[in-house]
Amino acid sequence: MPRYLKRIWAGDVYEEKIYFSPRERGISCERAAKENLSTEKMAEYNCMAAKRRCARMVNANFKEGDLFLTLTFRERVDIKTALRLFRNFIDRLKRLRKRKGYAELKYLYVVERKNKREHVHLLINKMDLTMKELKEVWGLGRVMVSILEPGGDYTGLAFYITKENYKEYGKRWSGSRNLAKPKEKVMLISKEKEIKRARVPKNYKVIEDISYFSEYTGKTRYLRAVKIGGEDYGNGKEGEQHMEHPDGEG
Q1: Could you tell me if 233 and 212 are in contact, meaning their C-beta atoms sit under 8 angstroms apart?
Q2: Which region among 51-55, 114-118, 152-156 has the lowest average model confidence (pLDDT)?
Q3: Whole-angstrom Cα distance, residue 107 to residue 88?
């Protein structure tokens, strides 16, 4: 089987994966390894892949000083109504930012259910608003706000907000169209060549480096590194159930 090295840059986070694939398919070569998965394994794979993609989008677009909000609904609403009300809130927030002279709004959100009630986790780029102003703009329930801590790795936060999985919600997360995309590069490497020592970009520190065997990518190595000077927000495992290590975009 062809052996690949996949490199991913998302903000201050660098990821690397070395794996096998049944056939050469360039940047989509991992798809070939999933063709014969059971329904259960495929669901597991897709869940982890969504978490990983979310983490990369968060790391590529948000930084210290940006805001993490949780928006609750005073009244019980279904998912369709929750999304409509949330989109209306985003429109109001865009208008407010424009009036105050802030940069264009960038956001990423997840709708979650707890105790049979919907709420929204939301990341937005920095703006100086009081709690009173935020509550007035939302106007539908409580608003909880946290400011992102120093450091460039918010993998733990991304995994936390995608911890739930509701089929009726469709996509587990979504965001504005102006979000920057992580950079990826896939290259074919020698089957015989063993990479024993991690070689990460200069001034990066490895915070996760594991090897494991997968039934669909064979012997696999995965590592994650963060630019020196930052602090890891989390280990990426909050809210997870135990499962085989993420082949899902891992």
Answers
A1: no
A2: 114-118
A3: 14
Measured in residues, the chain has a length of: 250
What pLDDT, on the 0 to 100 scale, is given for residue 218? 74
Phi/psi of residue 50, nearest 5 degrees: -65, -40
Residue 180: both structure tokens together: 């920057």
* Dihedral over Cα of 177, 158, 155, 28: its sign: negative
Q: What CA–CA distance (Å, rounded) separates 111 from 158?
A: 13
Give yes or no for a contact between 216 and 247, defined as CB atoms under 8 angstroms apart: yes
Q: Between 176 and 238, whose confidence is greater?
A: 176
Q: Which of 180, 145, 141, 157 is nearest to 67 (CA)?
A: 145
